[in-house]
Amino acid sequence: MLSLRPEEDEKLRKLLTELNRESKSKIVLLIDKSGQLISRSESPAFSSDDITFASLTAGNVAASEALSKLLGDKNLNHMFTETEDEGIYMILIDDKYILVSIFDKNASNLGIVRVKIKKYYGKLVELLRQIEERIESESSVTEQIDVEDIDLDTLFE
Amino acid sequence: MPFINFATREINCKIVYYGPGLSGKTTNIKWIYDHIKPENKGEMITLATETERTLFFDFVPIEVSNVKGFKVRFHLYTTPGQIIYQASRKLILKGVDGVVFVADSQEERHDANLDTLDDMLENLREYDIDIEDLPLVFQYNKRDLPNVLPVEVLRRDLNRWNSPDFEAVATKGIGVLETFKEITRQVLKKIKR
Fold this sequence. Notes:
The structure holds 2 protein chains of 2 kinds. Chain A is of the alpha+beta class. Chain A has a single domain (6-137), classed as Beta-Lactamase. Chain A is built from 3 helices and 6 strands; from the N terminus they run βαββαβββα. In chain A, strands 3-2-6-5-4 form a 5-stranded antiparallel sheet, sandwiched between helices. In chain A, β2 and β3 form a beta hairpin. Chain A starts with a strand and ends in a 20-residue tail after the last helix. By secondary structure, chain B is of the alpha/beta class. Chain B has one domain (7-192): Rossmann fold (3-Layer(aba) Sandwich), CATH 3.40.50. Chain B is 31% helix and 27% strand. Chain B has 5 helices and 8 strands. In chain B, strands 1, 2, 3, 4, 5, 6, 7 and 8 form an 8-stranded mixed sheet that branches. Chain B is globular and about 50 Å long. The model of chain B has no long low-confidence stretch (mean pLDDT 92). Chain A binds chain B through residues 1-6, 8-10, 32-38, 49, 51-52, 55-56, 59, 62-63, 66, 141-142, 144-152, 155-157, and chain B through 1-8, 11-12, 14, 35-37, 40, 42-43, 45, 47, 56-57, 59, 61-62, 64, 66-70, 72-73, 75, 77, 87-88, 91-92, 94-96, 177, 180-181, 184, 188, 191-193.
């Protein structure tokens, strides 16, 4: 079970925010391959639904990975999608996570984004591995969770 | 695999609606989406063909807050039912925390139910997910049609794990909520374990 402690959440967010600023992206997201949004840069101007974006990105990467396997390649490393105004660059980390930069093509470009990601990639991998090690060393995190009194009836109109 | 963020006090879980083509998977999550309060739901995404057959997946995020504890976000996915989309179905099962198997109760669709169940078991095996340990709910849909099999037959052939099961008419919302509540209950129970 993947979990983030407050201090880890802060470190991740800080790192992604720095990357976002240096690469002049609109937002940088960290997603796991099943489609969960793990962290994102502090980018108040980004107004799209990041949860939905994470799900679609994971689907997109999964489909491209399956395509590359069909072609006989072992792994997909990164991919790039371009719209009229925006670039979306996605890179796999440890074959478990996806780092995504969305940038305005007038403000940044693929080269800058890739160089800046390269700069932060090592730090990010290290941080994620520390988190994984902490998760493995913990017997159970779930005692601290109180989900007993969730009332699903209140969800519906 | 649930994702828990102790900083934002959020729990994220993935629930997949699986079943043969045209059994009503999209109808189920569309009904849930249409009846949930706006503040509790995100955007519904449908990747479908022009004839409204699911091509890759549908996605609905649902948020439930409770006062004391955590906010729980359920990510509901459907798989494409048609046989040819086997590869896509497998991709969607990645990291799944709970499965709703939506069966088509009509007699002529029973073989499709069985084939799809086999396909699901194989895909779960490939991800090393033990079905005995996976929250699982069965739904026998389309109970309002004239040519349906008795529930006992569906239960015997499909629900080999004695999982909770429900009869449904998803187009009218009958059984949809019960199914959803049961799978979420099971998923949360497993997190607590």
